[in-house]
Amino acid sequence: MDRQSRYKDFSAFLAAHFPFKVQKLSVNAGFTCPNRDGTKGYGGCTYCNNQTFNPEYCRTEKTIAVQLEEGKQFFSRKYPQMKYLAYFQAYTNTYAGLEQLVQMYEEALAVPDVVGLVIGTRPDCMPEELLDYLSELNERTFLLVEYGIESTNDVILQRINRGHTFACTQETVRRTAERGIRTGGHVIVGLPGEDGKQALLEQTKALSLLPLTTLKLHQLQLIKGTRMAYEYERNPSDFHLYSVDEYIDVVIDYVEHLRPDLVLERFISQSPKELLLAPDWGLKNHEFTARLQKRMCERDAWQGKYYI
Ligand code: SF4
Question: Taking every annotated instance into account, which residue ranges of this chain make up the domain Radical SAM core (predicted)?
């Protein structure tokens, strides 16, 4: 088995959909978050950086179309044939009235060479009327709705002040996938209270049962100015921050227990260096992936090897 085929890779997934190269372009549409303004909760998730939650930054002067055009310019010099997916990434990208949301998504889709949308949001922020519209949208373009799941354990979700339960995630992921919409999930590995390998393997079982198309994993990062950073200073023994090598083996154990057809998009996140407290790996995504694939070969590991 070669390195690349050891897990279901996101670029191969895109290549199966599009006969051309596709790049995600992040868009900041100026959304806020219901877990901060009291609609779902106050204070936000404990790992989320309050400093980046800056209304000036959110209320960006640039329209969605301008942001996408600028992103296109960056890539098109090197890859003139490239097409794009508009990635509504920052904050909660379904947190507005239906009319406003439709206008924003349609503005992105009207930009030449934008061939689809990726919409990141919280599982408690997906009303039926929006799903009605997204089902129709899904018929005419590529659509992926990505939910912040973060953990499958309600005690941990409460501890990090997520403001929703795993039952909420299960229900929303099912409602979305039932409409035929590609549904993605995002989880953080190493949250406080996550009790070692067994807990993560329980998580792989719960996630594999959901009708998810894609999954992103991220290592826990402590970001300056967050409530979690404060908790860490007070009680560092409550946290286990992985070294790169340790994390690679944890990810491999995890992937070996996942449903084999789940598309794996990412394994790490990279916060800006000036905001990152720990762990400082200094690794780019492709460098991590290369090390992961090498280690998978050494261990003769593959996705779903132990999936039951
Ligand atoms: S992580 Fe997302 S849901 Fe949580 S407080 Fe930050 S913006 Fe809101």
Answer: 17-261
Cβ(160) to ligand 1 under 6 A?
no
**Cis ω before 279 (30° cut-off from 0):** yes
Angle value at C-alpha 196, between 191 and 198, nearest 5 degrees: 120
Q: Is the CB of 122 under 6 A from ligand 1?
A: yes
For residue 201, count CB atoms less than 10 angstroms from its CB and return exposed for 0-12, middle for 13-18, buried for 19 or more. Answer: middle
Q: What's the pLDDT at 55?
A: 37
pTM for the complete prediction? 0.95
CATH number (3.30.1360.70, 3.20.20.140, 3.40.50.1390, 3.20.20.70) of 10-299 reads: 3.20.20.70
d(CA 153, CA 132): 30
* Whether the CB of 40 sits within 6 Å of ligand 1: no
**For the residues 207-234, what does the mean pLDDT come to?**
96
Which uninterrupted H or E stretch holds 147?
strand 142-150
Residue range 227-256, pLDDT digits in tens: 999 999 999 999 999 999 999 999 999 999
